[in-house]
Amino acid sequence: MKHPLALAISAAALAFTTTALADDPQQGGTVNTIVQPEPPGLVLGMIQNAPTRVVAGNIYEGLLRYTTGLEPIPQLAESWDVSDDGRTYTFHLRENVTWHDGEPFTADDVVFSADVFHRELNPSARAVLQHVESIEATDEHTVVFTLIEPFGPFLLSFEAGTFTMVPEHLYAGTDFRNNEHNDHPIGTGPFKFANWERGTVIELVKNDDYYEEGLPYLDGVNWHIIPDGGSRAVAFENGTIDVLPSGTVENFDIPRLSEMDNVCVTEEGHEYFSPYSMLWMNNREGPTADKRFRQAVMYAMDREFARNVLWNGLGKVPLSAFGSNARFQDDSLEPYDYNPERARELLEEMGYDGEEVTILPLPYGETWTRWAEAVQQNLREVGINVRTQATDVGGWNQRLGDWDYDLAFTYLYQYGDPALGISRTYLSDNIAKGSPWNNVEGYENARVDELFNEAATAYPDEEREALYKEVQEILHEDVPVGWLMELGFPTLYRCDVKDLVNSSVGLNEGFRDAWLDR
């Protein structure tokens, strides 16, 4: 049965779709929204954190966009060809694109952005570029990427935040990080940078020379900086703010705000990143080193309760290591349903003697604290001696980086393809102290390593699917980590803001198509 808020979201989405089809978009108006926290800068590609992405994704562009189903669609590239052996990708660029300073966008900008700018500054792009043998501009509007070997997720790599197009004429031969244009970013996107009043607002204005005829409809977008969560909620309630991006208010405020008149809610717009919450389980020592204990933890947790009560019915309970938005998910696996009796049987089978284990909550707000308390209660109910150890963000990072934990909450992005966002959690060569984002649990399985590495470069997709099916079966049995939730991060907005979320990165590029029905 759907939770009431989830039903409200479905109804709002239906109303949104029907209205959008019935009405013609109107030109004009400015939308007021929030960015939190204030970004350190706006040169996308040089800076890739979430606040920079959500603002600068409307200034800069990539070669491709992606639907909510993660299918590539044209952006700066209007079409592309892939060779039969999966090694050569030819992109045909739009011919009527200019940078915000009026200079033409050409294939040379693509080569510079990918082969120079991103190789130096962008770790996400570098991970993809290690599979690239050469990048060549064959004419002003054609770019050819030749790969060393096939790389399955290559076409998923050209989103603006990963492969940002930057102007060669402004950056070539300069110190990129200290370039004078960093304070006034120049892109090809639907909005131009206008003003940044530090601590108060970032103002974007319409790009009148945008290559998509008729777009954007809006005159501008103002990104307000309001440090306090309660004040952000009040600003939305009193009409100062039109759009609340995900994560800008406390989770417990969402039901109240979503019930206001003229407020719509959507979970769409996060499919590319696919935020996925996990419970790190230390595979190295103690009870958590026994897979039967880890399986017992899975059966002991009431994940549906967490979704329905703590997350307001938003998100999805995951089947296993591959989320529902990830390519090649094997949905035939037997789910780890809430089954306390099975958990007790596994603990008895392994001879668990009551040794204490600790839980490290994620210090990201009250919802996460409550979630840790709920899991602690679940585990105690099946006989696990468990204690919570709260930390601040710095302490959480250090404890995980030093592997000083038993169980710990986290969430990572899955990025749509196993080779981009999933394999990093399980590959044994990704075990390294000092980072809370790699194979923190210390899982080692030679066959899993082999399967992930082979699948990343297998071609065509049918071969990848077979390899990933086997790796999912092994992970499902070994339970290296606890699979908690495919997180639902809702965006709240006035219902008269139309066509706001229309791709898998949501507000990061959503304002190009948005319009006001006022």
Automatic annotation (TrEMBL):
Coiled-coil annotated spans: none
One of the record's GO molecular function terms: peptide transmembrane transporter activity
UniProt KW Signal keyword: yes
Residues covered by the Solute-binding protein family domain: 71-428
InterPro entries found in the cross-reference section: Peptide/Ni-bd, SBP_5, SBP_5_dom
GO BP terms, alphabetized: peptide transport
Any single GO CC term annotated in Swiss-Prot or TrEMBL for this entry: ATP-binding cassette (ABC) transporter complex
Name of the protein in question: ABC transporter substrate-binding protein
Organism: Vreelandella populi
Lineage: Bacteria, Pseudomonadati, Pseudomonadota, Gammaproteobacteria, Oceanospirillales
